[in-house]
Design brief:
By secondary structure, this protein is an alpha/beta fold. The protein folds into two domains: about 140 residues, Periplasmic binding protein-like II (D-Maltodextrin-Binding Protein, domain 2, 3-Layer(aba) Sandwich); about 100 residues, Periplasmic binding protein-like II (D-Maltodextrin-Binding Protein, domain 2, 3-Layer(aba) Sandwich). About 35% of the residues lie in helices and about 20% in strands. It is built from ten helices and twelve strands. It has a five-stranded mixed sheet, covered by helices on one side. A five-stranded mixed sheet has the order 7-6-8-5-9. Helix 5 packs across helix 10. The protein is globular.
Length: about 280
């Protein structure tokens, strides 16, 4: 049997491409993420594209987004109007059915501890904020945009802690290591399903909607955009509730990269108001 498996491995075609869907790839839904990719890859193969059999999961997201042979990746909207501009082409965005948003859009939830008396963002002036990272739109940029009208001399919070992930930001607020955090609204239902720390926090407010994290293709393969979009649309529509429900996946919206300029515009407005970064 081992010999037969080795022969099969040698005969399996090696894809020249790389693909990854890292933005919501929690361990608890990894099987469903893989099932989504399997459905997409099958359609790409039917179209004559040698799609990779499995997803790439590098430690650093930048190592996926900047690989020259990127066939399909899910990126942060902030990056496509900044560091990835001219390196990838936006294909569209998955629709996660976020309340108060158009299909394919999303926003962030501002959370605080469940026993905190604050009833709006202004009540947290001087508090300690948790952020997954300054290169995140949903955890940092959306918060910058929300706080800018309230800031004085470029400051609003009394402390800042960087956590690395939205999940860790939820935990940090829950254990009183921070008072408030902005959490991706697609992450939030994942946390409701899988993260016990949500029992200690509550939603304070919602940020304004923007396009959800885009699916992108490397610039060298942008000519495949139409085929990839057909494959993604067909794959998402074909999935059963056993895959779609754990991912809160409702559909796919093909859209231009220009849709994401709203992110750059909001950051520029915050900077013009004297609040370029969470502080």
């Amino acid at each position: 049997r081992a010999g037969n498996a080795a022969i099969a491995d040698r005969q399996a075609p090696v894809s020249p491409y790389v693909a990854g869907l890292p933005m919501y790839d929690w361990p608890e839904v990894r099987d469903e993420i893989d099932a989504l990719w399997t459905a997409i890859a099958a359609r790409l193969c039917d179209a004559g594209i040698e799609a990779p059999q499995s997803l790439s999961r590098p430690d650093r997201l930048e190592d996926l987004w900047t690989v020259p042979d990127l066939l399909l990746g899910q990126a942060c909207g902030l990056d496509v109007v900044d560091g990835l501009r001219g390196r990838v082409e936006v294909l569209g965005s998955l629709d996660y059915g976020i309340g108060g948003c158009e299909p394919g859009d999303y926003r962030s939830v501002l959370i605080c501890r469940a026993d905190d008396d604050g009833d709006d963002l202004a009540a947290f002036r001087g508090g300690r904020v948790a952020c997954n990272g300054r290169r995140s739109w949903s955890g940092h940029g959306a918060l910058v945009s929300a706080v800018a009208p309230l800031a004085e001399d470029g400051r609003f919070f009394g402390g800042y802690v960087e956590t690395g992930t939205h999940r860790e930001s939820i935990r940090r607020v829950a254990d009183r290591g921070a008072d408030i955090a902005a959490i991706d609204a697609v992450v939030w239902p994942l946390a409701l399903d899988h993260e016990p720390a949500v029992d200690e926090v509550r939603i304070l407010a919602w940020t304004d909607p923007t396009p959800a994290p885009p699916l992108v293709v490397g610039w060298a393969h942008a000519h495949l955009a139409g085929v990839i979009n057909e494959a993604v649309s067909g794959a998402v529509a074909s999935l059963g509730p056993d895959v779609r429900r754990p991912l809160d996946l409702y559909g796919y919206r093909i859209r231009p990269g220009a849709d994401y300029e709203v992110i750059a515009e909001r950051l520029a407005a915050a900077e013009a108001a004297g609040y370029p970064t969470v502080a």
